[in-house]
Amino acid sequence: MKEKWKSIWYKLRSMRIQVFAVVFLVGILPVILFSNIVVKAYNAQIISQKTNELKAYGNVISNLALSTGYLSGQESDAVERESEEVANAYQGRVLIVDSNLRVIKDTYGLEEGKTAISTEVIQCFYSPDSEYINEIGDYTQLTIPIVDSATGSVSGAVLISFSMKSLNLLVESVNYRLLLIMAAIAIFILLFAYLYSNFLSKPLTKMRNTIDNVTNGDPDVSLSLSTYSEVATISDSFNKMLGHIKEQDESMKDFVSNVSHELKTPLTSMKVLSDSLLSQTGVPEELYQEFMGDINNEIERMTQIINDLLSMVKLEKNQANMVITSCSINDLIEQLLKRIRPIAAERNIELIYESFRPVIADIDEVKMSIALNNLIINAIKYNYDDGWVRVTLNADHKFFYVKIQDSGVGIPEDAQDKIFERFYRVDKARSRETGGTGLGLALTRSAILLHRGSIKLHSKEKEGTTFTVRIPLNYITTET
User: Fold this and answer.
1) CA pair distance 23, 272, nearest whole angstrom
2) Per-10-residue mean pLDDT for the chain, 480 residues long?
3) Domains in the chain: how many in total?
């Protein structure tokens, strides 16, 4: 039962059903309200019109009764005839009452000579300026005082009862026609609400189907929705997301291909070297040691590739793995340069450090060390003998800046947009000589981005390269 109610609730939460219900109710409720107002106004108008007509006839009978002395016992054919005509015309009854409340005329002939004990008749003698209307079953009774214009006193009253059957039939006919019109309008609104809700939900259904196709392994799809500006914006964002997914997929394929290639190369070399040793007998010790040295170099290369890959995986994890501490950037760079100076000295490369002010920043010391170490090592590796590398540290109130310049070989302009890609090497032959894996700058960029920083490159071939790193002094955690 619980699952059943959950299923019903889930369906009721559907935008299609809710839009249908809202459009239908917003359309039908004003129609119902308007129709009720129209019917009531029509009924009131008909009754008012009929009452005004009877008031006019009642005043005629009242004037005739006064002028002919009918209330004093005088006979009057005019009063009799007018009373009968009004009663017949309106399928009702006319009574004339004198000042003693005695009925002197009854078109039905039932109450003549009797006393008319009626609240409305009695009130006429106290309020000569008023008429009284009350409903008695299917009849409406109008009580009109007979006022003597000379004295201003009430001399009697005229009671006119008229049938409401014809009016009720007319009202029922109007109500029936109005009901038919309302039914037609309701059907139209129902159809419009259904079509409109379908129209609104169709883009979402199409989007869901597209997402299902992507989930089922078909990324070569696109979404084109232009019904509303908001939907078109979502469509554009969705297509951008699909494009990003495709790029990520291609990047992953390239990454796997590059990893396979990078690991296969040293394995192939080791296989060739080991096969050469195994295929020969009585191998001289010198040759054996040479081959084993080559195999050892390939093993070291594989180890470096694997270590770089592991480092990259760690760097690309979310910010929860960032170990942020307040650190002296000056001390950090000095420690790095102390370890690197022997490497630079082997090629007589001058390592210059310039610090303009003490800098304290919130960083992950390990990750920042990886980034700066890779940049400085690259500046030494891809430099000329007897060259120079200059490391500059500066800061403002929001960021610190590390600039690494070298007098090296430079980077071709067509390769500068690709150097941060994994396994990309400008000169593959030279990179193998220097022991590069093509992951160093990718690692550097990842570490800098994790610090909410940026890295810029300026380089010309044979004129050197400059990397500028900008990092916020205060690390800001973004909510996930």
Assistant:
1) 77
2) 62 67 78 80 79 84 86 84 86 86 86 81 75 67 82 84 75 79 82 79 76 72 68 76 73 66 70 77 75 79 71 56 88 92 91 94 89 91 93 95 93 78 56 54 85 91 91 76
3) 3
